[in-house]
Amino acid sequence: MGLLSFKSLSLQNLSTQVKQYLVITGNYWAFTLTDGALRMLVVLYFHQLGYSPLNIAMLFLFYEIFGVITNLVGGWLGARLGLNKTMNIGLSLQIIALAMLAVPAEMLTVVYVMIAQALSGIAKDLNKMSAKSSIKLLVPQEAEDGEARLYKWIAILTGSKNALKGVGFFLGGLLLTLIGFKGAVILMAVVLALVWVFSLITLKEDLGKASYKPKFNEIFSKSPAINTLSAARMFLFGARDVWFVVALPVFLAVTFGWNHWWVGTFMASWVIGYGIVQSVAPMLTGKSDGKVPSGKAAFMWASYLTVIPAAIALTLYYDFYIQISIIVGLLIFGAVFAVNSSLHSYLIVSYAGKDGVSLDVGFYYMANAMGRLIGTVLSGWVYQEYGLAACLWISCGFLATASLLSLKLPNISQPQVNINTKTNAA
What we know:
79% helix; globular
């Protein structure tokens, strides 16, 4: 009996589609570890070389810019080529980016590192788009509990990704200490190359390939719900990164006197906790009562989040237990932000059309990358000119905008008609 039970759980008894999804998820996790580790390696290594925090942030500028472009074009590629191919292209580009950094220190100029980071940014967003788009094809929404199951699996994937990215931060610091920058990037490139070869062998289904050949001008969504959600997502992530990316680490180091290991550990722990909350977000938004979130839920949770940076800014203004206020405020912000992010990730997949799903998901994550880009640039400039409090007030304004945009989202939990798919299928 025990042997039969074991066989029933074996991978051989899973459907081909589920096996494909498991491979894609494994690829995504492996890539995420290298992405988080590489970010921490670059930050710590170039800090050791004497780069200022703002200059270090600028090393990631192309990473964010090309993330915007990749999400816009990547969804179109996924619909035409299949998500298996875009996933493998992403893995190969990350291997090239890591190999580019395995050169003598004197060759690591700002421009050179920015180019390597651009490739890494393209790779990351191809992987993310491929993994999240595939969920739409795995979970049947026609079933009675289809939407609830979709929300659950998206929350698990999104949360696990961010938790692993936090683990990657720790991994980057550990590898830098044990084998140095060059050794670390070589090791990660070799491991990821093995994952890539396995992926080339096992990913054989054209998962996510549209039944029609979408035109390039269809990269822009014509769905009002997706356009509105994308705009809200842009302001949501701009609100996080405007104070989180550059301003907060520099503030912790300068004002509290933390060394870079304390800062890195705290940021990594925050990201891991953020990922854990994302994974359990369905329990916090009513799934246990048989509910799935709608536009009203997106508005409510964005409204809750708007209050937090304003409260932290006020504690800075009144000099009220600043260290405790920043740490506690950041933890609360992270928990509420995680719910917002997980909720948005569910809504985009729910709204997206099933045929050519990556078109809608790619457009949405283009807006996400645009928000990160805006937040990253503002974080360095506003903090340098006006301080952390100004970053927090801008964050508050962005979140208020995201809340107002969310009022226009449909107050139903059923997928919305994708006008692109509808038109081309006719």
